[in-house]
Amino acid sequence: MINLTINGLQVSVEEGTTLLEAAKFLGFPIPTLCYMEGLSPYGACRLCVVEIGEGSRAKLVSSCTYPAEEGLKVRTASSRVLRARKMVLELLLASCPQSKVIQDLAAAHDIRQQRFRQEHEDCILCGLCVRMCEEQMMAKAIGFRGRGENRSIGTPFDIKSEECRLCGGCMYVCPACQLRCTYNEPDKAICGACANLSPPCVEKEQFDDMMCYMTPCVACEIGAD
Length: 225
Known about the structure:
This protein is of the alpha+beta class. The protein is about 25% helix and about 10% strand. The chain contains 6 helices and 7 strands, in the order ββαβββαααββαα. The strands form 2 sheets. A 5-stranded mixed beta sheet has the order 2-1-5-3-4, sandwiched between helices. Strands 6-7 form a two-stranded antiparallel ribbon. β3 and β4 (about 60) form a beta hairpin. The relative contact order is 0.14.
C-alpha cells in the first residue's frame, strides 16, 4: 500500500492508483472532461489538475494520469488549482461555447464571462470517442490524425470505415455533441442559472492554500437562506 496525504488527510491506496481515484475515494470532488470510468486515462483537458509538493517545488499535475506516490502531499482545491481550472474552462468555452457540458462546468466554477474569441469548434480533442471506439466497441474505426493545430479525429484518409458499426458510442461520450439550444453570443454563452450565488468564502486570503471542496458548500447554503 502507498501512503499519501490529500487535503491534509492521510490515505492508503493500492499501487497503481491515480490521484484522481484516491481523491474520489475520500470524497473530494475533482472536475473532469476527458476522463471516463472504463476508459484509459488520457490527460488531455487538464481540468483535473491538482497541486502536489510544497513551497517552491509545488507543481500542477493532471490527477487522472499521475500515480499515487509514497509520502506525496496533494491539494485538490488550492487557489492555484482553481485559477488553472478557470483558465482551462475559459479556453474550452471559447473553443466550443455551444457545449452544454462545458457551459455547466463553467457555471459551476463561477465563470460568468470568458475573455477569448469564440471559435465554435465541433471538437475539443478530448479523445473520448477514440478511446470508446477502440476500448469498449473494439472497432478502432476512428483515430487521431495530424499534429498541433492540424490535429483532428476521423477515419484514415477520410475513407468510410468498414469497421464502424454505427453504434453511436462516439456521440454518446462526446461533450461537444451535447448541444444546448441557447445563445452563442459571448455575453450569453454561459447559462449560470444554477450558479446565481457567488461563494462567500473562497475570496478570503486565509483560504489561499485550500479552497472549499464541499458540495453543497455549508457556507453557501447558509448564505442562501
